[in-house]
Every structure is written in C-alpha cells, then in structure tokens.
Amino acid sequence: MELDAAQIATLSRLGDQLLVYAWDLLAGIVLLAIGWVLAGWVRKTILRVLDRTPRMDRTLRPVIANTVRYAILIIVLVAVLAQFGVQTTSIIAMLGAAGIAIGLALQGTLQNIAAGMMLLFLRPFQVGDYIDAEGQAGTVEEIGLFVTQLTTFDGVYRSVPNARLWNASIMNYSRLPTRRLDLLVGISYSDDLARGQDVLMGLLTGDARVLGDPPPQVLVHSLADSAVTLNLRCWCGKDDYWPLLFDLTKASKLTLEAAGFTIPFPQREVHVVSEDGAKDDAVYPPRPGAPD
C-alpha cells in the first residue's frame, strides 16, 4: 500500500510532534529529579548551618528546613508543568482549586498543621523535654508540621498528631530545674516514731543531691492498717530525681533494719465463730516466730 504525499506529510508532522513531546517529557522528568535532589540537599545544608548557630532553637530547625524543602518542590512542580505548555494563570487557578479541595478533604490534617504552629509559638515544650500529654509520654525528638515525634522511656518510637497534643493537658517534666520527691516508708506501731523520723532525716541530709532549700522533711503521712507511714519529702534537681528515688528506697530499708526498726507487712485478724458460740481467734499470716 503506497502513501500519497498528504499522508506522508501528516505522518511526518505527527512524528515531529511526538519527538517534541518526548523531549518535553524527558526534560520534565530530569527537571523533577534535579529539583527533588536539590530540595533534599538544601534541607540537609540548612540543618547543618542551623546546628552551628548557637542561638537557634533546636525546635525550629527541622521546621525551617522542611518549609524551604517544600517551597523548592512546589517551584519545581510549577516549572515542570510549564515545560508542558501549561500557562501560569492556569497553574495558579489549578493550585487554588486543589488547595480548596484538599482543605475540605483533609480537615484533620489542617488541624494538625494549625496545632503544630501553636505548639511552636506558645512553646509548652521543646526538643529534648520529657512530657506526658494524657498518656502520650516520651522525650520530644522533633516537632513537625503534622506530627510530633517522641521516644518513650523504654526506647520505643512514638508519632503523635499535633492536634492530639494541643488538645491535651501537657505535663512537662523537664521545663523546671527542680522537682519534689516523695517516698513513703512504713514502720511498726511498736517502734519509736520520733527516732524513726530522725533516722530517715539523716538519710536526706546526708545525700548531696538533696537540696537544702526548701529543707527536707520526714512527715507522718498516714496511720495505715498495719504500719505508720512516713513520708520522706525533699527537693532535688530534675536530672537527679529517679536515681535519688531508687537510692533512697534501698537505703531507707537497710538503714531502718540496721537501727532495729521493723518494716511491717500487711496482716489481717480473723475471728472464727463455731456453731456452739466459741471463738477461735487467729492471725493470718502468722507472725514470724509465733508457735504453731
């Protein structure tokens, strides 16, 4: 089958157009790849520069870097669309329409963005703080536009939406320099109460991690079922809280036992009444050393 001159000319024009579109497609892919690599490189460079800036808050560093990265990607996307002959006005109109549609479809995501901006502005916590927001507890690693990244005390990664943190009551354990420590210790009713307080006070005053202002105290917390509960109350630096608590817990037992005090265990008196009315009194569990 032979082609006439008109068909040959049509095929030639079609081939030229396909070649032009192929070059445009290739240029768009190359431009998109270069823009993607460039955006990542600029983000890493900004992070390195901000890390060397002594007065730059660690909380704002990833936010600034990610914002610049997203801006570069948007510019690259517009340039790629322009490569295919899309007019600038059409691009703006398309982005506006897409923004409205995305805003209606992703209301929860926009809430996270707004909450992230409020968290960055009001600063209830910052990177490195240990927080507890109604069960969402951990050390803050990064505050992003959508989520906040935490690391729990046992080394587990946790990603929490910003809106959930913003709407929660946040306890920041790292914000203030000192914390109050309360340790409950029980002694027997038969022990000397005043002497027990003096022995425990010696533990507090003898530890350099216990602050002198406010002064430490040993208070009578409660009269429990089988023990007089004493409260060791003192103030310490936030970084010393857990080591001091563990050390005082161990030392209080060893010191009280060395001083002759009894650390009681729960006991219950049981009165058994037989059918003839006689009572058989027993204490369960039996006291140590009691006859069988």
Could you walk me through the main structural features you see in this protein, from its secondary elements to its overall organization?
By secondary structure, the chain is α+β, with helices and mostly antiparallel strands. It folds into three domains: 10-105, Helix Hairpins (Orthogonal Bundle); 124-172, SH3 type barrels, CATH 2.30.30.60; 178-258, 2-Layer Sandwich (Alpha-Beta Plaits). The chain is built from seven helices and ten strands. The protein has helices spanning 5-51, 61-83, 88-105, 107-122, 162-166, 193-205, 241-258, and strands spanning 130-133, 136-143, 147-151, 157-161, 170-172, 178-187, 217-223, 228-237, 268-273, 279-284. The strands form three sheets. A five-stranded antiparallel sheet has the order 4-3-2-1-5. A hairpin with a 5-residue loop joins strand 9 and strand 10. It is elongated, with a radius of gyration of 35 Å. The model has no long low-confidence stretch (mean pLDDT 82).
Task: Give a short synopsis of this structure.
By secondary structure, this protein is an alpha+beta fold.
Q: What Rg do the Cα atoms give?
A: 35 Å
At the first level of CATH, the class of the largest domain is Mainly Alpha
Provide the β-strand percentage band: 15-25%
Number of domains: 3
Fraction of helical residues: 40-55%
Please identify the oligomeric state. Answer: single chain
